[in-house]
Amino acid sequence: MYFLLQANVYLDPDHYKIFVALEELNIDYHVINIPPTAEKIDFETDRKNVFVYGSVTIARLAKQNTDWFPGSFYGGNHLYEVYSKYYGENLLNHKVSVHKISEELIWKKDEIKFIKPYNEAKIFHWKSFQRNRMGRLRF
Fold first, then answer.
1. Could you tell me if 57 and 41 are in contact, meaning their C-beta atoms sit under 8 angstroms apart?
2. Is residue 102 classed exposed, middle or buried when 0-12, 13-18 and 19+ CB atoms within 10 A define those classes?
């Protein structure tokens, strides 16, 4: 397996661990930068056993290279509605509710909610939120 690693993954503090693991296992890899606006992966290889590792952007772009296998595990179906049908209560955080950003949420007193974007992964960064007495969110 040949790993194509994205270098510029800034939000994941553990991203460097993949480099340590690949070095320890003596697995071939190459590191590239993928701009958020990239329309293709600017990398050429004769190898077919390529796997990309990094952001959703590189995973999505890897699908253009149809001769790479596995390419990536990104299939576009990583949504709660898809997984919950198959895993039910075995799904981590199975008691999820999905809302439109325009919907008002119901809050219990002193409740903390973990809120993350769903369809648009980068609209804001996920966090834990709590309402204060004035009804404002604090995090």
1. no
2. exposed
